[in-house]
Amino acid sequence: MRRADRLLAIIQILQRRRSLITAAAMAEELEVSVRTIYRDMAVLMATGVPVEGEAGVGYMLREGYDLPPLMFGIDEIEAIMLGARLVAAAGDRSLARAAASAIAKIGQVLPQDRNGAERYAHLIAPAGGTLGGDMAERPPPQDLGELRRSIRQERKIRFSYEDRHGALSRRTVRPLALVFVDGYRMLIGWCELRGDFRTFRTDRMKAVRHLDDRFAGQGRSLLQRYASGLPEKMRHAVILG
C-alpha cells in the first residue's frame, strides 16, 4: 500500500472509531508494523490533521474533522454496486429507482480507469428471475416506501396478518427494520399482541395503517435487543441506523 493510501486509510479508521485506538490495532488492520503507524501518525499531525493521543496510549480524531470526497478502492466499488443491484433486484419500486440513480451517479464521478460499473464480478438476477435454474414462486414486488418511513419516524403500524394457514389476526407493531430473505421481504417488529419480537412477511400484511402513535427513541435499542438474540453469524444482517 502506498503511503498516501495508508494515510487516508488511517484517517478513515479514526473517523469510524471516535474513541482511542492503539497503533497496534491499526497496524493489524492495515497489515503493517506498529513502527510504520507511528511514523504515519507523525506525518498526519505535522500536516495539520487534528489527531490527539500519543504512542503507547492510542489516537483519536477530534470532533468536526471531515475528509474531502474520497476515492473508493476496487473492492469498495464492487461492494457498493453489489448492494445497489441487490436493492434494485428486490423489486421495491422506489428503492429500485434510487439504486439505479445511485449507480449512475457513482459511474459519473469515477475516473475512467475505475469506471467499470458494468464489468464487476457480481450480478443479481431480477426479482422472480432465474439464471437457467429453477426458482420457487415468489410474491410480486411491493412498494414499501411508507413502511420505511414509519420505521425511520418510529411510528406504530396496525394491520391484519394472514398466517400460512390463512388465519387472520389483528396486530399493532413497532416496526424496526425490513430485511430481504430468500426472496421474501420481512418486517422485524415488536408485536404488542404477543409482547415479543416477531417477523412478518410483508406480502401477508393486509390493510396496513400507519398510526400517529410513536415509539420515539426506542427503535435502535429494540433492534439491538432483537439482534442480540440471533446467532452470531446472523447478526451482521441486521443493519442499525
Describe the protein's architecture and organization.
By secondary structure, the protein is α+β, with helices and mostly antiparallel strands. The chain folds into 3 domains: 3-61, Arc Repressor Mutant, subunit A (Orthogonal Bundle); 71-135, no CATH class; 145-237, SH3 type barrels (Roll), CATH 2.30.30. It contains 7 helices and 7 strands. It has a 5-stranded antiparallel beta sheet with strand order 6-5-4-3-7, sandwiched between helices. A two-stranded antiparallel ribbon has the order 1-2. Strand 5 and strand 6 (196-201) form a beta hairpin. The longest helix has 17 residues, at 74-90. The chain is elongated and about 65 Å long. Mean pLDDT is 78; it is low at 113-136.
Question: Which word captures the global form?
Answer: elongated
Number of β-strand runs? 7
Tell me the structural class. alpha+beta
Taking Cα atoms only, what radius of gyration do you get, to the nearest Å? Answer: 23 Å
| CATH architecture identity of the largest domain | Roll
CATH class placement of the largest domain: Mainly Beta
The count of helical stretches stands at: 7
Helix content: 25-40%
